[in-house]
Amino acid sequence: MNQKITILGAGLVGSLLATLLQKKGYEVTILERRLDMRKGNLAAGRSINLAMSQRGWAGLELAGLKAAVEEIAIPMYGRQIHPIEGESIFQAYGKNEEAIYSVSRGELNRKLMTLAEDCGVNIRFNQKVIDVSLETNTLQIEVDSRISSYDEHDLVIAADGAFSALRNSYLKTDRFDYQQFYIPHGYKELNIPAGARNSFQLNKTALHIWPRINFMLIALPNLDGSFTCTLFFPFEGEVSFSSLTTDQEIRLFFEKYFPDVMPLIPNVVEDFKSNPSSSLVTVKCFPWIYKDKSMLIGDAAHAIVPFYGQGMNAGFEDCRILMDIIAENHTNDWKNILSLYQQRRKINGDAVADLALQNFIEMRDLVADPIFLERKKIEKELGKMFPDVFNSVYEMVSFSHTSYFYALSCQKAQDTLLEKVMNAGRFEDSLQSTAFRNDLELWIATYAAEVKAIETAS
Amino acid sequence: MNQKITILGAGLVGSLLATLLQKKGYEVTILERRLDMRKGNLAAGRSINLAMSQRGWAGLELAGLKAAVEEIAIPMYGRQIHPIEGESIFQAYGKNEEAIYSVSRGELNRKLMTLAEDCGVNIRFNQKVIDVSLETNTLQIEVDSRISSYDEHDLVIAADGAFSALRNSYLKTDRFDYQQFYIPHGYKELNIPAGARNSFQLNKTALHIWPRINFMLIALPNLDGSFTCTLFFPFEGEVSFSSLTTDQEIRLFFEKYFPDVMPLIPNVVEDFKSNPSSSLVTVKCFPWIYKDKSMLIGDAAHAIVPFYGQGMNAGFEDCRILMDIIAENHTNDWKNILSLYQQRRKINGDAVADLALQNFIEMRDLVADPIFLERKKIEKELGKMFPDVFNSVYEMVSFSHTSYFYALSCQKAQDTLLEKVMNAGRFEDSLQSTAFRNDLELWIATYAAEVKAIETAS
């Protein structure tokens, strides 16, 4: 008899994992809180775009959905940085023309749901899980104000996001460590419509950033020629959501800080007023599992801020690693599988949360700094010169399957190395000197030893 | 018409605060989850003893209960440190024979409840608050499995401990920062009975510590001649709760690590097996208030580990500061009062949590270290030599009303100062040298400037 698995949440991670598990031979049911988004114009929740990178593609490939998503994905080869004055600057993400991909969250989710159903997964919509009894694995479900119990499963997997119902039950168990914290910034979405004949009004092959030190605007391309913009902005303070109250203040703010964007967003004042300001939470917790009965995955285990574009990517990697572990073990030995899953993923969930917080500083502040831009260039050169030894943290995170924990751990060694290189002067000039090239070989050897030590320890 | 206040929890903090507010002219009701502990042999919850110090006495004094509690309090003038081998060492807490006081939690709680009722407070027992609607301030209360609503108040104050029901409702609000984490150690209570004719089998004027690096046993005196012992011990690992499973293992453990205690605890194996192992949580959160409607106080706002003996003391200080703020403002301007309360207390709640975590290291490890004992002696000497400038962090915390935040902030400056002094050699010898005394004057001046800067900044 097949084992039965109930997944909470038919979002990106829940739908992908359901497909993978059903294909593996389990009988999977998804309980989704919302109505079926395919039957109306319902928002997918949260932001409209996401940035798909290596780890995301790997998850889709496992499910056989890579080719179909490639058709709706727009490659972004780097950051197009827009200062207040002067020309914008293009900064490539990778040294080999790698890209991250702008994908519509809603489109992707619809495809994943349909694929899951095609594989035999039963998705039940409008099912709000209000409580979980951990010992009996019984779910209390509210449907149209009526509450019923559900326990027809051997395993419960919560892919129900940053405010997971299962995790709420974990919170009441003894010795459950839990942390949720908000950054002082929120976000608001705006839209740059397509130009004439669905033309793009900005370079479509880049992620656009208007870095303004304590806040920033970004824009990602959509298939229809429009761009989805997101303003990341403090809730409180002198220049903040709370300080912009009148039409006049909103207009002056955009004119002052985003003069090149103003003409592209026709209704910026109206949109600013009518679109919500949403908060940004990070969640860390432990354990991620309860005995052999249930587990957390994706945002439910590690909600992160969006600044590395890794939320969905990390969740898909959770799925891939879980499937690896199932393949390496007796398929129903949940005690062992869940324990190995938690052991392998917890440090990476924490690491990607920290990377994402760090990258906000980089995006809103550092990318406007010429020294930082120079550093990013040198990182790529070093990667080309020493391909077996050096790969920038950004590239590890976005274009490899290197563990997040390892990538984060390498950050300090990279900082030290780059500081040495940059202290020697302009990189192109330095390279003319034999003494520098000898020094560089030595520094690289030191770096290699440091990261080797990290690898051994982790 | 009097304003009505509902307090959740008739523990130490809830009962004291109810008394203070009722005396101020408010109409106070307490809802207590448990039955009336005065009507039976119910445990007061958590540990049996507590260590009352300056901040605790100040709270009792406000309520007029200081003299009555002094009658049931046993002064402990220092730590009696018991190494595995050799004589025990007495280390005074203060430079002027200050003491902390062993008080029975249950006795104190009963006195506080009775005082509250004598002042006109209405304590309703067996009332389990299961949910709070923050906007309407409506409490859902379960009494004998029947649920009813209660909202007859202008303000709700949660003094309902580390797992506060009100804080659970705060947790669901946007932008509420929350952290709960457990240390790897739990605790188990044991008992050293009185000797013949209610005699004390250990020095009754000290807090006894058996420091064993990664774990420790402590003992506090009771009025009846017995001592309450608490073993702080890792849950997992080579020597841990999980490793002691047989009678033999338990006996050998006590024989090996606590040979002088073994003869004093007649049923140590039985007690070890039958008494629960409890976990130790720290909680930090923000905000502590909701609009002008409700607030958290004591452990509900800042649950801490017990190693500084400051849990109740910090809660009583919360009460005193809240009463100060009420006195300085319009008595019903809750928006302003709650905002000031949070502003003044949040940093101190976090600081005492950190101090308590630090003190575990000190108690279980450092007090067995001769260098550390020497340092503690020098601290007292410095306090006598420079009374206007230098006061050890321990003395600030236990024997003054200096803010926890300031005390914690001074730690680093004290570490630096003491390191300089101790590097010069044995303090008594050093003092013979004019050069050293000149250096010391200079170091003290530097220290004074550093702590002045901390004071100005905070």
3D architecture notes:
Two copies of one chain form a homodimer. Chain A folds into three domains: 4-71 and 104-180 and 281-360, FAD/NAD(P)-binding domain (3-Layer(bba) Sandwich), CATH 3.50.50.60; 182-279; 369-457, no CATH class. Chain A is 41% helix and 23% strand. Chain A has helices spanning 12-24, 54-63, 66-70, 105-118, 165-170, 247-257, 268-274, 299-302, 311-328, 334-364, 370-385, 393-399, 404-423, 427-430, 434-457; strands at residues 4-8, 27-31, 49-52, 74-76, 78-81, 89-92, 100-104, 122-124, 128-133, 138-143, 146-150, 155-158, 177-192, 206-211, 216-221, 227-234, 278-286, 289-290, 294-296. In chain A, the strands form four sheets. A seven-stranded mixed sheet of chain A has the order 6-5-14-15-16-13-17, sandwiched between helices. Chain A has a six-stranded mixed sheet with strand order 8-2-1-12-19-18. In chain A, α2 (54-63) crosses α9, α6 crosses α7 (268-274) and α13 (404-423) packs antiparallel against α15. Chain A is globular. The interface between A and B is medium-sized, with 12 and 12 residues.
